[in-house]
């Protein structure tokens, strides 16, 4: 028998980076020692205290039953306490916190839960490609808002046409930013809250890299902004903060109508998460080792950023210095498109990078470097690229 996929699935965006993975695998099969800077998967293990806590909870039969649909009250309380202590923002754990199997789920289900076919929302360009899956599943339209180097990769709210702002229902933002490594400022977020109120646009802050800030500066949470809870929500994932990308655990905090809609759609899709995982997540957030474990993770990325940026400067390749995340957003030399440049690096230097156009039209002219290997290998990658004399 042959089965056709639904029209809904036909509308899903193609996975741009599948092509890159295929090219890299081919080179590896040919025996090339590829230095892969194209990925976004944390390379180090989850901190030991979280692994040990999980082992303990997995052995407890109480965690083997169905979870409450909307997750353990103690986990929602721990999430609310975490935000209160860290960002001074207060949330009612039952009404203003939603538990998620990774933040990607929340980002993708949100249009489905809160918009109607034909509605419009705003997405950053360049931006995390999976935002587009939500538009396809929710059958909604999106308008992209450019993130430009001259604005430190923050959207210029004054440049969003009045008509677009008026018809938009939501605006997705992501700082610290994938792919550019830019961070938001309190002033920008204050302006964003006023803009959101003026045009009645819900703000969806994707704080996936919320823990990863450099130069002694912790990234600003949107929820620190006065009035933020009134206009939006923030997604917080364990994937990057605690190297837990494979565990699939996150939460959202903020406006209770948005949280209720996310919880409602999830009542029909999931039975929350494995209770042992939720218990381990509470321990991840509350254990005394938390801050030192996170500091080790962040310190490692900062060391890699420094090594990479310094080596790149030496070959005349000037970075937009990343202030957070584990990415560097690097310009493409004149005469190449992002994809052509990425191909040259792979074929002539054995270095894989992610072409910027995969993140949107305004990603053209850049490539994204993942700082997910040790500093020596990053420097070796830059030295191999230097030998091509593309920046002389
Ligand atoms: C900007 C951004 N948002 C969300 C996610 C998804 O994270 P999670 O593992 O919580 O689904 C990622 C993962 O790479 C990301 O880069």
Q: Could you explain how this protein is built, in words?
A:
The chain has helices at residues 7-10, 16-29, 48-58, 73-87, 103-114, 131-138, 162-167, 186-199, 228-231, 238-241, 256-269, 275-286, 290-314, 338-349, 375-386; strands spanning 35-36, 97-100, 120-125, 141-146, 168-173, 202-206, 232-237, 250-254, 327-331, 351-352, 354-355, 366-370. The protein folds into 2 domains: 7-46 and 291-387, Aspartate Aminotransferase, domain 1, CATH 3.90.1150.10; 65-288, Aspartate Aminotransferase, domain 2 (3-Layer(aba) Sandwich). It has 392 residues and is α/β, with parallel strands linked by helices. The strands form 3 sheets. It has a 7-stranded mixed beta sheet, sandwiched between helices. It has 15 helices and 12 strands. β5, α8 and β6 (202-206) form a beta-alpha-beta unit. The protein binds pyridoxal-5'-phosphate. Pyridoxal-5'-phosphate (PLP) is lined by residues 40, 102-104, 128, 174, 178, 206, 208, 237, 239, 245, 250.
């Amino acid at each position: 028998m042959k089965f056709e996929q639904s029209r809904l699935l036909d509308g899903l965006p193609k996975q741009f980076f599948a092509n890159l993975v295929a090219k890299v695998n081919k080179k590896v099969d040919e025996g090339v020692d590829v230095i892969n800077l194209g990925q976004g998967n944390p390379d180090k293990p989850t901190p030991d205290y979280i692994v040990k806590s999980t082992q303990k909870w997995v052995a407890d039969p109480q965690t083997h039953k169905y979870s409450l649909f909307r997750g353990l009250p103690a986990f929602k309380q721990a999430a609310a306490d975490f935000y209160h202590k860290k960002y001074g923002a207060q949330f009612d754990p039952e009404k203003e916190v939603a538990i998620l199997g990774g933040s990607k789920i929340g980002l993708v289900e949100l249009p489905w839960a809160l918009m109607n076919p034909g509605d419009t929302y705003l997405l950053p360009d360049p931006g995390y490609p999976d935002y587009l899956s939500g538009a396809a599943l929710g059958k909604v339209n999106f308008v992209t808002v450019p993130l430009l180097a001259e604005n430190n990769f923050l959207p210029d709210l004054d440049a969003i046409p009045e008509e677009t702002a008026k018809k938009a229902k939501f605006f997705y933002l992501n700082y610290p930013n994938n792919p550019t490594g830019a961070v938001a400022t309190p002033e920008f977020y204050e302006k964003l809250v006023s803009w959101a109120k003026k045009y009645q646009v819900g703000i969806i802050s994707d704080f996936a890299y919320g823990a990863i800030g450099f130069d002694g500066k912790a990234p600003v949470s949107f929820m620190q902004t006065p009035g933020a809870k009134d206009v939006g929500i923030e997604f917080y994932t364990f994937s990057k903060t605690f190297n837990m990308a494979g565990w699939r655990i996150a939460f959202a905090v903020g406006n209770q109508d948005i949280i209720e809609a996310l919880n409602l759609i999830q009542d029909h899709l999931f039975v929350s998460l494995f209770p042992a995982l939720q218990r381990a997540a509470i321990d991840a957030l509350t254990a005394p080792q938390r801050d030192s474990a996170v500091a080790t993770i962040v310190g490692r990325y900062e060391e890699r950023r420094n090594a990479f940026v310094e080596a790149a400067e030496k070959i005349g390749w000037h970075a937009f210095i990343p202030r957070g995340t584990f990415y560097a957003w690097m310009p493409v030399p004149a005469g190449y498109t992002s994809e052509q440049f990425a191909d040259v690096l792979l074929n002539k230097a054995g270095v894989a990078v992610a072409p910027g156009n995969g993140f949107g039209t305004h990603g053209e002219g850049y490539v994204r470097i993942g700082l997910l290997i040790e500093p020596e290998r990053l420097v070796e990658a830059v030295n191999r690229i230097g030998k091509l004399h593309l920046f002389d």
